[in-house]
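Internal ticket - ligand job 612, fructose -6-phosphate:
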Amino acid sequence: MCGIVGYIGTKKASPILINGLLRLEYRGYDSAGIATIEKDGISLMKDKGRVKNLYNLEGIDDLEGTIGIAHTRWATHGKPSKENSHPHIDNSKTFSVVHNGIIENYHELREFLADNGYTFYSQTDTEVIPNLIHYYYSKDEKNDELKFLRAVRNACKDLKGSFAIEVVCKDYPDNMIVVRKDSPLVIGKGDGENYISSDIPAILSFTRDFYLLNDLEFVILSRNDAKFYDIDLKPIDKKTKTIEWNASSAEKDGFDDYMLKEIYEQPTAIRETIGSKLTENSKCEFEDLTFTKEYLQSINKIYIVACGTAMHAGLAGKNAIEKLCKIPTEVDIASEFRYRDPIIDEKTLCIFISQSGETADTIAALKLSREKGAKTLAISNVIGSSITREADYSIYTHAGPEIAVASTKAYTSQVVLLILLSIYFAELLEIKNEDIANLKKEVLELPKKIEETLKTSEVVKEFSKKVYQEKDMFFLGRGIDETVAKEGSLKLKEISYIHAESYAAGELKHGPIALIENDVTVIGIMTDPKLVEKTISNIQEVVTRGAKTLIVTNQDIDDKRFDMVIHIPHTNTFVSPILSIIPLQLFSYYISKEKGLDVDKPRNLAKSVTVE
Ligand code: F6R
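stdout (structure tokens):
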């Protein structure tokens, strides 16, 4: 949600900043802007619309500055407009700021600053920040090298809410200050230069050495250095961390869209996520987990908490944990969980899933669980992300950077990791379950079976062409297939803007079947041999009422009854969501393409939701 880039070095900053913004555009794309320090002070260039519009701004090619900050916006306070675009500048044009997050007390701060003679030109919460910094700067009588830092720190002390900010000051033309609280920001260390970004992929082509910041750590950057301070301005020692992702993992590599590339990366993502945790004949191992049999025996409930697609992965996790380990497991939406007073104590284990590791609701739910005495385990795709720094334990999917807003490879990697986790728990608990040996085999065969499943692409595309102009679609399944129906329906909504609903197939006749009429498209998922006949009967009910049907199945069924049947490789119901979702990911993708939409950047959405 909003993307931030910064550069301080010896090269011209503006092309680097714009390039970085283009890579971060999936975080928000209502407006964009850059501020550089030029010979005559701070230059601001910004406008509403996509990042590429910046190339059209007069004078953008004449910028010479080698220090700059940049922003691509996902509007929260104030509609997309030039005035509301970042960077913002204070009234005296001394400080310019870009900000990701929300300043909750901006009304009070705005009033306070207005009473002190400051004027505001935008409707944003952000505009208070440069002016507040200026307020403290102008009151500080000491003129030493830390004056800029003191002003930023003092301003941040007054801010309530979440923020990742970059600040430049015309009086300190060789420095930049950055700080974060509950919003992501990383610093990439180069040779005689430093890069700043909301996330790692945007600057991976420049460096793989990163400083990961904790909340309220202040950094003064210069070309050759990064100095870290705590809130009391005591220096902190910080080392860089080398990131394993390579630069090409953040490129399209010949695919038309990131989403399609990421769909095709799933065999690798799953292979990497399994890594060395599992072999057929040994116990499942998680290097970073130190759970004991006694602890697992002491817990009476597991919560899995997440948002959107990550929550759908949690549903597959619940299925595996309950079936293998017999520990009652509830799956909850993070934004609801934290406000519904969940029953949590030291006998509860809370698992939080977040691809980005920066989702505000999920982080808040984690903090709440910890306060109530539960142990917390984070599952993320981003090393060092906020959620992993808050949790007692962290484990990672190794899906590589996921750039498309619609999550694909992160989902399947999360499901496989949860299945591995349930095997790990079951083995620690010494549960004798013949399913486990078979499950291990199925998990290890997944990359090959995903490759097979991807071969359904052409058939899926053919069906997409027939139905892409539809207004409503229904996704039906029973048991584990209902969880996939939910995820399939979410994918379709997100990128095709077609209204889609998902239902437990047996629930249809309790109301929603009233919506079925001639030619409505219904997608049925059937992978559970115990339930397939029942689901077929439910689908038959919609066929009778004129629905067009697409079926995804690994069972032997009579194809003639349906308009299109996609056959996927056979596997068991623990891992079937990893295969059955793939044709549905492709289905949404091809529909979006047929409609001529921007697959990677669907309207109103942002990749990482860092506000409540
Ligand atoms: C859907 C999608 C979202 C995310 C959700 C949580 O395709 O990507 O529903 O799954 O916003 O994001 P993370 O996993 O980053 O917490």
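Auto-summary: The mean pLDDT is 94. The chain has three domains: 3-243, 253-432, 455-594.
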